[in-house]
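Limitations

Structures in this collection are predictions, not experimental determinations, and the ligand pose is part of the prediction. Treat each record accordingly. The example that follows, with zinc ion as the small molecule, is included so readers can see exactly what is and is not provided: the inputs are given verbatim, and the output is the predicted complex.
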Amino acid sequence: MGQIVRVSCEGCGKSEELHIGGGMMDCDFDSIISGMSDQQKDNLREAMHLGAKDFSINRHPCQCQSCGSFYTGSKVSFFLDGEKKAVWSRCPSCTSFKRRLLNKEGTTPCSECGEKVNVQMLGFWD
Ligand SMILES: [Zn+2]
Ligand SMILES: [Zn+2]
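Predicted complex:
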């Protein structure tokens, strides 16, 4: 079951509602890769053809280090040749890969203003 959280910065007042964790639909490969860029989808499909298995997805509250926006970072994990691999989604606003994970204790400083970013539980999805 996934969680709905509100991520808000005490300094600049920026706030976003994010869906994190995993949901029921996540067993389906197409839904797992739906948040990925075309390039990443190709890479994941190729990995699957090479015998990758145990695909799973998890979503984390992230702050983009390029444009400062809050977004849900999707992390797709899988095993290939006995090794655990992971592919991360990009910032939906500016497509940067530079991100910082926001921890749920709300102690991660905002990359824009340096103040605390609070992560507040709102409920569940799925
Ligand atoms: Zn801020
Ligand atoms: Zn960005």
